[in-house]
Amino acid sequence: MKIIISNLLFLLISFNLNCLFAQSMNYDKQFRSSSDAFFYQDFITTKSEKPGFSKVDVYILVPFKNLQFIKTGQGFTSKYSVVISIYDEKKENLIVEKTWNETLNVLDFSQTTSKLNFNVGFRSFELKPGNYLFRTGVIDNDSKKEIKSENTFRVRELNPTLDVSDILFVTKSDLPDSKILPNVSRNITLTNYGLQFYYDIFSGDSSKNICTVEYEIIDKESKVLFKKSQVKDIKFGKNQILEHIPDLKLNLGTFVLRVTIKDENLRTINVLNKPFFSRWAGLPSSVLDLDKAIEQMIYIASPQELSKIKDATTNEDKLKNFLEFWKRKDPSPNNEENEVFDEYFRRVNYANENFSNYNEGWKTDRGMVYIILGSPNNIDRHPFEYDSKPYEIWEYYEINRSFIFVDQTGFGDYKLITPLSGDLFRYRY
Fold it and tell me: For residue 159, what is the DSSP state?
């Protein structure tokens, strides 16, 4: 089956995963929830023709909007380089390294900034089964911007008699010539196409021509929400499987697709877990939990506006009211960006990442000021003063104001002692 690796049209998000969600793919627990990631990647273990080895396909997806495009005679061009370095488990020895270049050409400048345009490349590696460190770097050749990531990944040893490759989510299964579009982000909008995925079953015994495959959808509380079993006729060698679960209804959030393969005697050969994120059509990718996002709007929405959104009787109405609120805040409704929405939840995410203690960062005093006023022009930190508790002074030159935060407990819970007042207690873009 040929896999399309050029421009893909689908929405993205990466997400935090707990231990259950990383049983077979431990790099998943290193993913972070961010709608602003420079690139996304996925790792697929499959069968190698080289004895004693497995093959790992590494997919790299880069959104157009993160790249620098240069005007040329035929339109606009961007070039970037990808470097993948694989080390042993102790991070001491370089096993293999591959570098390649990507060139993107578009006719219209609007294509360079669209959230819907991406480029996907992949490379394959022959590796012995075991644990490895994958270091990936993506370098924009024009801006020289370089983003790196590290992921530990366990390369499986496939059973030569009967086994299954890792699972690759796809965006569509109704394309001609058996082509598929890989969903590297694992961001699934079920109302569009349902849940679709691809994998291979490998049979090394020509006398065995059936196996049983079970599919389960599991939530974060380990509750099984969907279960289906199929008996499959298999041939000797590689069997390509493209599955589609239509009409699957899930809430917004992270789930696991579990695939269990059994032999003709119903003995379990392997169990694979593949996390994915369930999206709702119309909901921006930076929102991972609608109810939580509504709570976080306290600094921009009035009590009446929040009540209207929260009191909706159905999830559909709640989402409708949520989107209508942000549409009214959009400073440029004629384009696909909503700058106020994006910036507001960027600040929320920043606050959660940098100011959380026993409270989530957006609920803290520093988080509140950061979300309302944005990044300060200057921060004067005093963490180890001899005669005083730790404190910080945030200065905002445009409004000629300073805010002092004091850590009264010594546990990083900085309290604001120069409170916001008047019209400052509302979000500023």
Answer: P
Look-up: residue for tokens 């009409």? 247
Residue 159 amino acid letter: N
CA angle 395, 399, 401 (to 5 degrees): 40
DSSP state of 158: P
How confident is the model over 142-167, as a mean pLDDT?
94
Task: Determine the Cα–Cα distance for residues 358 and 132; give it in Å rounded to an integer.
Answer: 34
Amino acid letter for position 282: G
Domain boundary assignment for the chain:
19-279, 290-424
In the chain, % helix, strand, coil (3-state, to 5) comes to 20, 40, 40
**Segment holding 3, helix H or strand E:** none
Residue 367: count of CB within 10 angstroms of its CB: 24
**Measured distance CA(242)–CA(167) in Å, rounded:** 10
Closest among 149, 15, 154 to 82, alpha carbons compared: 149
The CATH architecture that domain 19-279 belongs to is: Sandwich (2.60)
From 299, 315, 295, select the one nearest 307 (Cα to Cα): 295
b/e per residue 98-109 (b: at least 16 CB within 10 A): eeeebebebeee
* DSSP notation for 326-366: HHHH-S-TTSS--HHHHHHHHHHHHHHHHH-SSS-GGGSHH
Which pLDDT band holds residue 406 (cuts at 50, 70, 90)?
very high
Q: Answer for the pair 140, 63: CB distance below 8 angstroms, yes or no.
A: no
Distance separating alpha carbons of residues 398 and 378, to the nearest angstrom: 12
Please choose, from the candidates 275, 129, 156, 261, the residue with its C-alpha nearest in 3D space to the C-alpha of residue 201: 261
If phi > 0 it is left, if psi is from -120 to 50 it is alpha, else beta; for residue 254 that is beta
Report the C-alpha gap between 246 and 175 in whole angstroms: 16
pLDDT for residue 16: 33
Are residues 195 and 24 in contact, defined by beta-carbon separation less than 8 angstroms? no
Q: Which is nearest to 194 in space by CA: 173, 165, 221?
A: 173
* pLDDT, tens digit, 9 for 90 and up, residues 18-41: 333 333 334 454 444 444 578 999
* pLDDT greater than 50 at residue 278: yes
Kindly state the average pLDDT of the residues 164-180: 76
* 225, 256 Cβ separation under 8 angstroms: no
